[in-house]
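Sync notes, pocket subgroup
Present: LS, DG
LS reminded everyone that the earlier model was apo-only. Rerun requested with histidyl-adenosine monophosphate included. Inputs:
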Amino acid sequence: MATVKAVRGTRDLLPPETELWNLIEATARQVFARYNFGEIRTPIFEDTGLFARSVGEETDIVSKEMYTWEDRARAQSEKTQSLTLRPENTAGVVRAYIEHGLGESGQLQKLYYVGPQFRRERPQKGRYRQFWQIGAEVIGPPSSGSESPLRDAEVLEMLATLLQELEITGWTLELNSVGSAADRAKYSDVLRAALVDVAPKMCGDCQRRAVTNPLRVLDCKVPEDQPIIESLPKIGDSLGKDSKDHFAQVTAALDAAGVPYKLNRRLVRGLDYYTRTTFEFTHGGLGAQNALLGGGRYDGLSEAIGGPKAPGIGFAIGLDRLVLTLQALESTQAPAPAAKADAYIASLGESLNAAALVLARELRRAGLRVELGDGSFRLKKSFEAADKIARRIVILGEDEHQSGILTVKDFTTGTQTKVPRAELAAYLARPAGE
Ligand code: HAM
């Protein structure tokens, strides 16, 4: 019979690699807490309309990559509903912000999330159909200061700090402004006019988008279309004074904080909700999928999905890509040896298994990492098994059980010692060889 495998574009994360994932997540949580963020967990599926109205109907994500299904009605009175596995988390966070009236306090909301996202993209290194993001959003009514360029700079400075704490070097922050909603509308008109003559020479998607949403023509990856895209007017030329001033304040604050960046006037990002500041952190070690994280401001998103005016800014880090980057950086250094358990308990015979379980519980409750044999091995085989996974072996034979004095062998030094049960936890907690 054919075996069942993980679905294309999905994968299992196994130990010890999951330790690195946990370490990154724990570091991110610590850094975010210092910037006064709290965690939000939104559902993994949402009403399809949420993504159509926020990320945008004509984006690659919504038009080609979503896992969408019609949910069956359970009763005659129930309607069917189109549901979608979340392809990103900003829309869900803003929906939750509106649904729970989080803006009513007048306070700026600073929310972070860690979780899987789903996009039906062509899988390759660093690009999966289920992937993980660590993201954060800063959102609030205008009176909370949510529009301030300081918020943009603070978020970018936080990201630089997080990458530094993770010891990730060699990243580039690419920065742009796509202007206010009005600037974008103006730029759309300019693009639409410029595309009239050239669009017929472009791919089918571009021909359609030239009419429906000209900005999305800039996302086209078809090689033949690139020279045409390169010759189109740039968004920077359509920015009004307010947008330019806002961006100048963002860059001035970054300069003051010593966060290095590179201006990339073509960075419009593949989601419709962005206004003003947009950014990506790229890393050379990643190959073709070089965006480690991306984000930007979305001053009109809440209103686009029926909420109050609530400007915001946020980002999402591709956790899979962060792990790849760290692994690439670490492989240039000596690999860390896999951590071994503090002790392996070998009971000599199955009749001592219950006593071994009690001893293991005692040591584990004292904070030690303990592996438990099942009494089926002879002594020699127990030693071999223990040597592979633990620093020390504790022998529990009938004598040891009766006397309460255990035999412990240290694999680093090869020495064997008798240790009273009451002193065992403290003895095993000592570094190997001591
Ligand atoms: P995004 O640029 O679509 O933005 O995704 C952010 C990051 O997620 C990317 O830079 C990349 O590292 C990772 N990523 C995206 N697709 C994949 C994939 N198929 N496989 C592996 N990693 C992937 C957003 O999702 C926005 N919600 C970010 C945001 C938050 N903007 C404002 N707030």
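DG: The chain has a mean pLDDT of 95.
LS: The pocket of histidyl-adenosine monophosphate is lined by residues 88-90, 119, 121, 126-128, 131, 133, 135, 137, 291-296, 314-316, 318, 320-321 (CB under 6 Å).
Action: DG to write up.
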